[in-house]
Amino acid sequence: MTLSVEEVTLVLGDGDDEVTALDRVSMEVGAGELVAVVGPSGSGKSSLLAVAGAMLRPTSGRVVIGDVDVVAAPDKERTRLRREHIGFVFQGSNLVPSLTATEQLLLVPHLDGIRPATRRDRAAALLDEVDMGHRADRRPHQLSGGERQRVGIARALMAEPAVLLVDEPTSALDHQRGAEIVELLARETHDRGVATVMVTHDTAMLDRVDRVLRMEDGRLAAPTSAVG
Amino acid sequence: MLARGRSSSAEGKAVDLALFGVEPGTFIAPASTEGQTLGATERGVVISEALATKQGLKVGDTIVLDRVGTELPVIGVTGKANYGHVPIVYAPLAVWQEATFGPPGGAAPGRELSPAVRNVATLVALDTASGFDPAVIDQLGLKTVTKTAAFDGSPGYKEETGTLNMIEAFLYVIAALLVGAFFTVWTIQRRHEIGLVKALGASNRYLLRDALGQALIVLVAATAVGVLVGLSFGFVIPGNAPFALRPGPVLLAAVLVVVMGLIGASLSLRRITKVDPLIALGGAR
Hints:
heterodimer; A: 10 strands; B: elongated
């Protein structure tokens, strides 16, 4: 499925405090494509993720996943879309502190009312895929930053999403660990045919991505380079 | 009647007592736990347990009522029986009539008491079957009340139970507020986690059920501990305190505490629905 963002404008605040976080932003990410959005902090990258991820309704414009208009859907439907079609990888991984790696993954079907025990095999396979099989029963505080990020990626893939939205995945990692994480994201994106958007300010991480978009002051610049 | 009596035994100790006249053999006559039952002798009385255990009266003693001079031979002991916190002495109706309305010291030798004295009673206890119509009695110029109303009518009873009931009711309300405050703090503390799970697609229904479920587990466990602590304190309370442990009220109180706790916990639910999943973005952790 394709993720398309069409002419999205997002105005935050009101009156004198009005800020245009996104200014007529359009982009299209195909299935199996890893697109990086780079730009300085405050340029609107996170807002773009929030809008694409059905967490924030834009002031105008459309976000379409497959053939579903994410913006027009009512709140309940948007919650369901997040659960079933959108995978998030958060900055600093953002795992639930009290759960083991396996449980982080099993939380996803549980949110859907599915008995977690029936998804144990899938969780184990995904943890193996991200090289975390040997750490399956560790809790977040027992894992390194890179390991947490791997668990976060496995969790995002748990529901077999059509769209993967990744927020600064390398911010807490050294260069080598960061490169490994981007490599993992590229592999999963291509193998699974997911439409992936990775937001980052780390321009050293772009050699494995399919396309780079540059964001500045809420505007998305035309692609400046096509890598890979 | 409330009176002060003196035991005939060596100590001659003065005791406060409430003298009840009862027709021996009727349903309100006390059952003796020790000695003979009321009516076994013409003038014998049955005393409540407290007079035996605390005042040292025993079967075979004679209580002499102060000023009135009526002699009451003790023939039996019954269970706990108090009237306005004063232990009851059950006498045959005729003895009570004589002590209450007769001349001090009883009838003069060789003379009977006036028949008018023999017709006096404070109240008549009715053992009614279902379908009984009190109006039938009221037509005779009497007034019937329920047992509860009769208890309420006795001195201090309503005020005392009213105060205790009010304390109890306030405790339930306080329990709800306390639990509410606890779960509100808990919700605030895990706000970030709630935002994260919402971002992953948790519905409000899922989160509310989860929160109430956890509240229920904590409440049931804590109430069970509370009941055990309460019971163990209850068992060491001295025997003369007006205190009893019965499964019914204990269970009811436990259920009420859990229900009130859930009501309190639900005060924090609005905070859960208001958490914005957006806080999961931006790496606040």
